[in-house]
Amino acid sequence: MKKFKVSLLQLDVKFGDPEANYSNVEKYIEEAVQDKPDVLVLPEMWNTGYDLERLETIADKDGQRTKTLLTRLAKHFAVNIVGGSVATKEDGKFYNTSYIFDRKGQLISQYQKVHLFGLMSEDDFISAGSTLNQFIIDGIKAAGVICYDIRFPEWERKLMSTGQQILFVSAQWPTKRIEQWKMLLCARAIENQSFVVAVNRVGNAPKDSFNGHSLVIDPLGKILEEGATDVEGIFTCEFDLDDLKAVRGNIPVFDDRRTDLYF
Ligand SMILES: O=C(O)CCC(=O)C(=O)O
């Protein structure tokens, strides 16, 4: 039996206000560790929100501020952190970047969102990444994606096809499409026979509102935990990774793939 405890930080994000957001994230991490989770998970673009026109002023230069904060907290509390994502500026370009830290505070993966969301003009301001986000936390193989990425099952399949057991998702997914969020995430869990741990933000931005529904989903697509709507909060859930063995053994979809016909 390998129990794994996750804490989802379903936070509000103050539009274009990094000072308020860094301070809020630190406060919530200090509170979340009281439950002694194995991993903390943050939402998407939590430093700036989608204040894309002001990125030159507010994006995190080379992710330094974010890395310094999350490294310190991961090490101090001996907790793994899937750091959601932040707006960064690197080599003159802007990215939607995720950083992952282990319990020693070491940066074990970093990822720049590969599918940019045109409906929120993300592609007008941000450059797309092109690397996989696979990592190992406490000996467990895992992968991470950001928001719109979940609409591309080929991407999650590629990430999950070398034994990954947990898919982490960080998002700013608007209220008006929240039913799609839930269905897409349940489908990603079922088809990849993996746990899905997905954090969405709450609150309002000038053009959108967000109502949480952060989710922990088991490999059969059953929702184990669902964040209440419209409230900032920490949602903690423990699951048994041994459950994967039965699911993958009974219906071995990875083995049954026709890779001679498709990827
Ligand atoms: O795909 C969607 O409906 C939402 C995606 C999104 O909001 C994002 O990628 O930031």
TrEMBL record:
PROSITE patterns: CN_HYDROLASE, UPF0012. Keywords: Hydrolase. GO terms for molecular function: hydrolase activity. Residues 4-241 form the CN hydrolase domain. It holds the Pfam family CN_hydrolase. The keyword Coiled coil does not apply. InterPro entries: C-N_Hydrolase, C-N_Hydrolase_sf, UPF0012_CS. The keyword Translocase does not apply. Belongs to the carbon-nitrogen hydrolase superfamily. NIT1/NIT2 family. This is Amidohydrolase. It comes from Liquorilactobacillus hordei DSM 19519.
